[in-house]
Each structure stands twice: as structure tokens, then as C-alpha cells.
Specification:
Layout: E1 2-5, H1 10-22, E2 33-38, H2 44-55, E3 60-69, E4 75-81, E5 90-97, H3 104-109, E6 118-121, E7 141-144, H4 152-161, E8 167-169, H5 170-173, H6 176-186, E9 194-201, H7 206-219, E10 223-226, E11 228-229, E12 232-233, E13 237-244, E14 247-254, E15 257-262, E16 265-271, H8 277-286, H9 292-299
Parallel strand pairs: 2-3, 2-6, 3-5, 6-7, 7-8, 9-10
Antiparallel strand pairs: 1-4, 4-5, 9-13, 11-12, 13-14, 14-15, 15-16
């Protein structure tokens, strides 16, 4: 069910949510957190789709805040989605016009679930100091996406300067499978001396930057990023090569399958799919405290 509320206020939206709950259209029990999404108008529906999918594991109230026009009439239009239109959640979309966008914190405060943690997610462009933003100040977990910024590398450096416990970035969450696979494979070779680390990835991929830095911190030598494989430019991350004094370890992904070659063991393969925003959001909503490893890796991005 979708309820449209043009030219409304936060208090009227809260009252309508209560009415829907009392009439049986919304079940608030079991909601474990409030997810506040700040997105541009082009990203709203894809963000809601990912959040609805994540809500099946983390039942939430989802509040989406998007600024439609900078000038013109000051107003707030709202849309409430419940039932089949909201997954395992209730979705409130707030579309601001003109001066109505000047105080986003006041728009969402009255709609937050009582005594539940708040997670903030910016699936499109955002400021590089999320903890100091109006929405970030009320959230215990703050998720940015450096891959969506105009200059991902510069954005990562600003994130590092402004890092606050509770910050997270989807560029980091996207490499969870790479990190777990590489950690498991390296266990077989930890007695060997590492001489070279190569990440095969795009120079526009913040995930490649973060993976290279994580490998540097774990293995103790600098990692380089190669932007081509077999003469072709790379999108995202395609592979990792670790050289030893007496051999090497290589994992190269093609589509969703990664081929593994390593000294002393037969060649093998493993499923290594690219992670969706929904996959990343599920992981980021599972742990609401500080990601200490991410913080360490991110701060190492400052050159």
C-alpha cells in the first residue's frame, strides 16, 4: 500500500504512521533499527530496493530524504509505503523543495523508532565528513559510497582525515569476499617471504585502493595496482598476485568465478561474485559498532 501526502509536515506523517499501525497496516514490533537514506532523486528507487531487501534480515523503518529543488516554493511531500510495497519494512519518502531542505535533522527526528539505533546511508554523492552532517550526528552507523563520488581517491583521503568510529564505506564492504578468500589462501603460505603484491584493478575503483592498502598492512610490504590484464583495461577488481621468494599465489576473477593458482597446490576455482548494494547493506547493518580494521586501512590512505 502507498499513501501519498503532498504539502505535509513531519508531525502529520508521524500521526499517519500511527493510524496505519492501529488499523493493522503497519507492524512496528520487531523493527530493530531506523535506516535513514539521503539520496539524490535518481538514486531513490534503487536505494529503496536495496534497503527493502536488507530489511528482510534487519527489519527496519526506512526513511528516505531527497532534495528535489533548491529554489521555488518551500514544501515537503511525503510518501508512505507499507505491506508488499515495503518488503519487511515501512518506508517513508520525504521529498523536500526549496527551504524545506535546510534542516534535514528536524524532518526525520520525529519519525525515528524509539530506543532503536539509527543507521545513515548515502548511496549517492555526499560530504566527506559524515559524522558532522545533520543526519550523521543522529546515527550510530554511517555508510558512504566513495565509488559514487566525482573523485573517489580524493574522497577517500577526506574520509580518512575525518574518520569517526561508526563510519563505513561500501567500497570497503564490497571487498569482504576478496579479503576472506585471500586470508584463507595465505594461511597455506604464511611461512614464505612475500616479495611483491599486485592488485589488478581500475584506477577509478576505491575498492582496489582499499584492498591494496589492506594487503600492505597485513603482509608488510607495499602493494601496487595494475590497471590492465592481457592488455585490457579493468573495471573494479579482477585479481591479486602475491609473489614469494620461492613461488606465488594468484587469484583472477572472470565473471563470478575466480581461478586460483598457487605454489605447491593444484589449480582450483571458487565462486567470487560482485557484491550488490543489498549484500553490502546487509553486512553493514549487522555490525553497528566500530569497524577497527576499516578505520586502520582508511587512515592509511593519507599520502
Amino acid at each position: 500500500m502507498i499513501v501519498e501526502m503532498p504539502k505535509t509536515t513531519s508531525s502529520k506523517i508521524g500521526k499517519r504512521l500511527n493510524e496505519l499501525r492501529e488499523s493493522g497496516g503497519v507492524v512496528a514490533l520487531g523493527r530493530v533499527l531506523t535506516l535513514v537514506i539521503e539520496a539524490d532523486s535518481k538514486s531513490v528507487e534503487s536505494a529503496i530496493e536495496a534497503a527493502n531487501g536488507a530489511s528482510r534480515l534487519h527489519p527496519s523503518r526506512i526513511i528516505v530524504l531527497t532534495n528535489m529543488e533548491e529554489g521555488g516554493e518551500s514544501k515537503l511531500d511525503a510518501e508512505i509505503r507499507v505491506g508488499g510495497d515495503a518488503g519487511a519494512s515501512e518506508v517513508v519518502i520525504l521529498r523536500t523543495f526549496g527551504a524545506a531542505s535546510s534542516n534535514p535533522e528536524s524532518l526525520v527526528t520525529g519519525l525515528l523508532l524509539s530506543d532503536a539505533p539509527v543507521v545513515a546511508w548515502w548511496p549517492s554523492s555526499c560530504a566527506a565528513n559524515p559524522a558532522k552532517s545533520a543526519i550523521g550526528k543522529i546515527a550510530s552507523r554511517r555508510i558512504t559510497d566513495s565509488a559514487c563520488q566525482d573523485d573517489p581517491s580524493a574522497f577517500l583521503k577526506e574520509l580518512a582525515k575525518n574518520y569517526t568510529p561508526g563510519d563505513g564505506d561500501m567500497a570497503w564492504t564490497r571487498i569482504t569476499l576478496w579479503r576472506s578468500q585471500l586470508a584463507a589462501l595465505y594461511e597455506k603460505h604464511k611461512q614464505r617471504t612475500v616479495t611483491e603484491i599486485e592488485v589488478i584493478g581500475s584506477n577509478q575503483s576505491p575498492s582496489a585502493d582499499l584492498l591494496a592498502r589492506w594487503l600492505e598492512l597485513r603482509l608488510g610490504i607495499p602493494a601496487r595496482i595494475t590497471n590492465q590484464l592481457a592488455g585490457e583495461n579493468i573495471e573494479g577488481i579482477t585479481g591479486v598476485r602475491i609473489s614469494f621468494q620461492d613461488g606465488g599465489l594468484e587469484i583472477i576473477r572472470s565473471d563470478e568465478i575466480a581461478r586460483i593458482s598457487q605454489t605447491g597446490f593444484p589449480d582450483s576455482s571458487v565462486l567470487l561474485p560482485k557484491r550488490t548494494d543489498q549484500d553490502c547493506l546487509i553486512e553493514d547493518m549487522r555490525f553497528l559498532g566500530e569497524d577497527e580494521i576499516y578505520g586502520e586501512v582508511l587512515r592509511g590512505e593519507i599520502s
